[in-house]
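Re: that chain you flagged

S.,

Sorry for the slow reply, it's been a week of failed gels. I finally had a moment to sit down with the sequence you sent. For the record, here it is as I used it:
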Amino acid sequence: MAEDAVSTGALTGAVTLSTCNRLEFYGEVPGEDPRAVHRAQQDLALRIAERSGLDERFVLETMDAHEGEGVPRHLFTVVSGLESAVVGEREITGQVRRALNQARQSGTASPHLVQLFEAAARTAREVGTRTALGERGRSIVSVALDLADDITPGQWPRRRALVFGTGAYAGATMAALRDRGCADIEVFSGSGRAQQFTDQRGGSPVTEVELPAALRRADVVIGCSGGSAPMPADVFPEGPRTVVDLALARDFDPAVADLPEVELITLESVRVAAPEETFESVSAAREIVDHAAQRFEAARSARGMDEAIVALRKHTMSVLDAELEKVRTHHGCTGAEEQIELAMRRMVRSLLHTPTVRARQLAAEGRADEYITGLEALYGLEVGSPRTAGDAQEPPAERSPSDTPRPRAAG
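Prediction finished late last night. Pasting the structure tokens below so you have them in one place:
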């Protein structure tokens, strides 16, 4: 969807962050028309509705939109694991990094969005090194597998696992299973990419024809694909087995839990069972995120101010050069010409001193918009505005969502 929005001109840059329990879009809206943000939201909602089969109005109503300073604050919070089902989990950091890399490969990552996501990565590292948040190494997958151990105790080296999905989260699931000693892992994908996935990550691919037999063999079935439609309960053989559904859009019909000797673990189960981080760790992490968001906005305002100052100086100097040329044309060269020019240039620099100092002061106070609006009104200069707009969208289960012009992230 990001590629489509950029190719049609609705966005000048876009990054899609899709994980097991969130779907967010960050985009840069072209131009400075505030209505462009609203149009981008509607365009995105329409695309989501068309692909998901959901009503467009429902999609719009369930979107959480962030713009301006709220965009970096939201992304920095997410990448630090503060909005995850397991607070402090570190898998989200890699998922955010991969989202940016994918956008770069597809050509949708604008320079301003790259700056935003790189700042997010730095913030996550700062949270990781300066707080105890997530130091126990908990993740959604690890908590889910702990629950599986509690429900159906057994030795992982003797268990057979069947994983649904071939995305990054399926890869993380494979790694977690191997860490526990599970060696017999089969992989199924409705997209047909199981063979390619297992060639890279190990395990055995399962085709559509082989799926019923694989389900009968599996002691643990883990869904992390988020397919278009949940697998019906009547496809599953009766237990004993544990079914773990980590997909935001469920991989399995909840009625699976009603099958004899079948235990179902869902994202909601993981959320309830996740260990709570200490208040001190969470508070320290949020303080780091707040300061990082403020620094990002201040730096961006400063860059916008630099452009404003350059634009004002260019405009003023061009007026001066034009007037000096008129003097030369009408009066020719005189012995005093050089001295006059030097004096006039010193005068212009003196006149520019106060506006330049004031620009720095306003940028530090977060009032760069006022300065730039004033320049545009007084001189008719077109200066990239520091205003940022963004939308991050996510379904209700866990809703959440560069200098000329400054970045707008739009969902």
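What I noticed first: Confidence is low (pLDDT under 50) at residues 385-411.

Talk soon,
D.
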